[in-house]
Amino acid sequence: MTSSEAFARDTQIVHLGRDPQANHGIVNPPVYHASTFIFNSVAQLLETRRDRASGAFEQFTYGREGTPTTRALEDAVTQLEGGYRAVVTSCGLGAICASLTAFLSAGDHLLIIDSLYGPVRQFCDEYLKRFGVEVSYYDPLIGADIAHLVQPNTRVIYLESPCSLTFEMTDVPAITRVARARGITTIMDNTWATPLCFQPLAHGADVSIHAATKYISGHSDLMLGIAVCNEAAFIPVKKTASASGYCGGPDDIYMALRGLRTLSLRLQRHQETATTIARWLQRRPEVSRVMYPALPDDPGHAIWRRDFNGASGLFGAVLKPCSEQQFAAMLDHMDLFLMGYSWGGFESLVVPTYPATLRSARPWQEKGPALRLHAGLEDPDDLIRDLERGFARLAAAA
């Protein structure tokens, strides 16, 4: 097959990470269920030990460190991201924790975005601080001014763009330029954009994180994480993930590979539907503002348009002040926008959000209740009618 770099991204998604000729003509890579690998000689066994000790991890030694199925997914996502190699973990949080702890030790300083995924904040505050890592949160709109927050012991800057729950756009290139000039490792959660809409490594990051649970799998039925690394970052992340036991299950890895094949088609539909619903919400009298950087009037639109190739189906909205009873009446009886703590699957979801409880560097000033919505693959008109009925319930509960 011609080098994958010669093909468009949609073609790469179909073909990367699989080799039918190496698997008896089977289209999809087989699922390898394995804990134990057998070696034919002491020399071979010692060679695998040397491979692991060096950090190359080219050879298969034990199921925790991967199988051919694991390698197929890692290779596919790595090439889509333009990385060196990737590490599959048990979930997105596992990929984040492995990446952070790979580069942080007691006495080090971590700069981390204020609007990050909640469980990561918990990990930083309850675990990293306990083990002697100093953690500082920065304003997601800080850009190159992050240089003023860098300390002599700053080892990692962690980013998201757009931000969890509030969808501010971070100037990733500006921050990574500061980090690179000072030898600081940068790690970015790229789950919202997927490798199709943004490539953090091409914008200066060292590690790009994906909760493959979400868009890469696309079917709300597995838990998986991926850390795509540049060459310098790979060995530390791989060794840390292996030593920490962050391994993905073979069936979940296979299902993520299968989901990856339709990512481009699904993501296009998610964006189209999200844009339609976001524009409709902007016209609703109950809505104070919509948070979706793909909208031309969004405060982060200029950065999104400069750096991103598209958007996903996840966005936010702030309602005008209403009572808790009204808010609950709207959400309790939705038919399509059901409540669930995830996104990226084929179905639409909604959850109430409370950004004020998760912010410190940039306080949340909105007065009304906030929502996070995921536009699934349902008909947009049906989804709009579902929201319309929800707003009617909100008004009736006044």
From TrEMBL:
The keyword Phosphoprotein does not apply. CDD domains: CGS_like. InterPro entries: Cys/Met-Metab_PyrdxlP-dep_enz, Cys_b_lyase_bac, Cys_met_metab_PP, PyrdxlP-dep_Trfase, PyrdxlP-dep_Trfase_major, PyrdxlP-dep_Trfase_small. It catalyses: an S-substituted L-cysteine + H2O = a thiol + pyruvate + NH4(+); L,L-cystathionine + H2O = L-homocysteine + pyruvate + NH4(+). Gene3D superfamilies: Aspartate Aminotransferase, domain 1, Type I PLP-dependent aspartate aminotransferase-like (Major domain). The keyword Repeat does not apply. Keywords: Lyase, Pyridoxal phosphate. Pathway: Amino-acid biosynthesis; L-methionine biosynthesis via de novo pathway; L-homocysteine from L-cystathionine: step 1/1. Pfam families: Cys_Met_Meta_PP. Its cofactor is pyridoxal 5'-phosphate. PANTHER family: CYSTATHIONINE BETA-LYASE-RELATED (PTHR43500). Belongs to the trans-sulfuration enzymes family. This is Cystathionine beta-lyase. It comes from Ideonella azotifigens. The lineage of its organism: Bacteria, Pseudomonadati, Pseudomonadota, Betaproteobacteria, Burkholderiales.
